[in-house]
Design a protein that fits this description.
Layout (H helix, E strand, L loop, with lengths): L29 H15 L4 E3 L1 E3 L2 E3 L4 E6 L2 E10 L6 H15 L4 H17 L1 H12 L3 H26 L10 E9 L2 E5 L7 H12 L3 E4 L6 H13 L7 E3 L4 H10 L3 E7 L2 H12 L10 E5 L4 E5 L5 H13 L9 E7 L3 H12 L19 H17 L1 E4 L16 E4 L6 H4 L6 E7 L2 H9 L6 E5 L3 H10 L4 E4 L35 E9 L2
Parallel strand pairs: 1-5, 7-8, 7-10, 8-9, 10-11, 12-13, 12-17, 13-16, 15-16, 17-18
Antiparallel strand pairs: 2-3, 4-5, 6-19, 14-15
This protein binds nicotinamide-adenine-dinucleotide.
């Protein structure tokens, strides 16, 4: 039976209740660790396979290929992918438009049931999906768990949100009229995710799109197309009709650019760097011949996130929070702490304790569940090492500062702490996106807050202090989309911490929050005369 003919299974009773976050595995339990090792071996046996473009349900081959490599072991091919070029934009758009005609009229309950089924399937194969992340982007087990759990959360959360939106309260009723406001889909969206949450962000933007009745051209990052291909397989198994998501790995500058500028592209959901986000914003703002709408852009971009350590902070927990937020997934999170801004009265104590904590971090193959794996690719490793060299001139290396060659052939860099970095310097202002933390000395809380706010970005931030006054000041004046008090600045949870940043960190779309689906719909007001 063709995929499109598969009936969508109805929601199961387990989905009737309120949303709850997917629990993480505790790998201190040997049973969980044993199952994870088995999943890694299962996936290891599937490495190097070839995956096709999927346009309107059809498998398409291309001459050019994308090779996805294991950053911890670049000689190991994770997957070989077809490479969509400009010539594939038109067929993908035609397929997406065709699917839109029926998918946009499919009842919300049915669309939501697709997401619930995808969540169920993913839950059943969670460790295998985690293992793909271990190989494709060098996530350790815990980081891979967080990524796949968030994917499940997005499916469950957006399905419930779509059902809520479909039943939203009627507007004010004028006498002699029946007045309604409904949220209808936009059209065909270009979904362009990054490689760093290659399952959760890719799936989150895609699920929010399709549950609202839109159809999608999905261009995953060239560094992580395999996990996206596995997710599309799962959607097909869950009963997704042909053409609803068209899977097109390809280069950003050719295929990506051409999709963004296509006149029939109705919106772009992008997460990635500031530079590419701004470029997409500009391209999307230009009316193409035949284009009859203003393209909507949902752009989530970079960060230069700071943790403020106040003089009266609990230094032990500040050190732990900074170490985890700076070096989890090798510092390659938009929310990663890349600046610790520390009151001069506790500066030396904080640095001594931080050095001892960071030197306990193990670097190596994440298949063995080391604390830190490799950075994503060679280009990224070179850029990070250049920043470190600059840091040696501008500041003082406390620990790290070089490649971790003993960890193997991969792109391993030691967790690096650079102290005495001046405010406004390059390392204090630019997103490094690697395992590099700069530490800045502040004269006091006001000065710390001033430094924290003085970059182009405004994504996440945290403050460690025991003072209620300072907490209240931070709540008012620390200008970030996601602020954390006395805890680390990474690890946003769907539902509890709607995520998105201010300023050059993006359009503050607040993924995983109650407003997110509005971005993927348009409100239609109808007034019908009754009397
Ligand atoms: P990137 O900007 O290099 O690439 C992101 C995506 O855009 C990729 O799929 C890429 O192929 C595509 N692309 C590149 N050029 C394009 C073009 N001209 N037209 C269309 N698409 C194009 O980012 P990355 O290296 O994949 O990801 C890291 C960045 O993402 C960091 O800056 C990080 O802070 C940011 N990020 C932000 C968030 C957030 O929620 N704010 C979350 C995760 C990552």
């Amino acid at each position: 039976m063709a995929i499109a003919e598969l009936p969508l299974r109805p929601r199961t009773s387990s989905h009737q209740g309120p949303f709850v976050n997917e629990p993480f595995f505790d790998f201190r339990h040997e049973d969980n660790a044993r199952k994870m090792r088995a999943a890694i071996e299962r996936v290891r046996g599937q490495l190097g396979r070839e995956y096709d473009l999927i346009i309107g349900g059809q498998r398409v081959k291309t001459t050019d290929k994308i090779k996805s490599l294991n950053p911890s072991k670049p000689s190991q091919v994770v997957g070989i992918h077809q490479k969509a070029g400009k010539e594939h934009v038109e067929p993908a758009m035609t397929a997406a438009l065709k699917a839109f005609a029926s998918w946009s009229r499919t009842p919300t309950e049915e669309r939501a049931s697709l997401l619930f089924r995808a969540a169920d399937l993913l839950r059943n194969r969670k460790m295998d999906y985690m293992a793909w992340l271990v190989f494709e982007v060098s996530k350790n087990w815990g980081e891979a768990d967080a990524d796949v759990s968030e994917t499940i959360d997005f499916c469950e959360f957006y399905a419930r949100e779509a059902l809520r939106l479909a039943k939203s309260e009627p507007p004010v009723q004028l006498p002699g009229e029946r007045d309604s406001l409904t949220y209808i889909p936009l059209g065909v969206g270009a979904v362009i995710p990054p490689w760093n949450f290659p399952c959760a962000i890719m799936a989150g933007m895609t699920m929010a799109s399709i549950v609202g009745g839109n159809t999608v051209i999905l261009k995953p990052s060239s560094d992580s197309p395999t996990i996206a291909a596995k997710f599309i397989e799962l959607l097909e198994e869950a009963g997704m009709p042909e053409g609803v998501v068209n899977f097109c790995p390809g280069a950003g500058a050719s295929f990506g650019d051409a999709v963004v500028s296509h006149p029939k592209t109705r919106y772009v959901a992008f997460t990635g760097s500031r530079e590419v986000g701004l470029h997409i914003n500009k391209t999307a703002a230009t009316q193409a011949p035949g284009q009859v709408w203003i393209k909507r852009t949902i752009l989530e971009m970079g960060g230069k996130d700071a943790i403020i350590v106040d003089a009266d902070a609990d230094i032990d927990s500040a050190v732990e929070g900074v170490a985890q937020a700076a070096f989890g997934f090798q510092g390659q999170k938009c929310s990663a702490c890349s600046r610790a801004i520390v009151d001069e009265r506790v500066y030396d104590k904080f640095l001594d304790q931080l050095k001892a904590r960071v030197e306990k971090i193990t670097v190596g193959d994440p298949a063995e569940n080391s604390n830190m794996g490799a950075v994503i690719n060679e280009g990224s490793m070179k850029t990070i090492l250049e920043y470190i060299e600059q840091g040696k001139k501008d500041g003082r290396i406390v620990t790290g500062g070089e490649r971790a060659t003993e960890a193997g052939e991969g792109y391993f860099i030691r967790p690096t702490v650079i102290a005495d970095i001046p405010a406004k310097s390059k390392l204090e202002q630019e997103e490094i996106f690697g395992p590099v933390l700069v530490v800045i000395k502040a004269r006091g809380f006001d000065h710390a807050l001033e430094i924290a706010n003085d970059t182009e970005f405004g994504l996440t931030g945290a403050i460690y202090t025991k003072s209620r006054d300072k907490i209240d000041r931070a709540i008012r004046d620390f200008h970030v989309g996601n602020l954390y008090i006395n805890r680390k600045c990474t690890g946003a949870m769907v539902g509890a911490h709607p995520f998105g940043g201010f300023n050059m960190s993006g359009t503050d779309s607040k993924s995983g929050g109650p407003d997110y689906l509005y971005l993927f719909t348009q409100g239609k007001s109808v007034a019908e005369k009754t009397g």
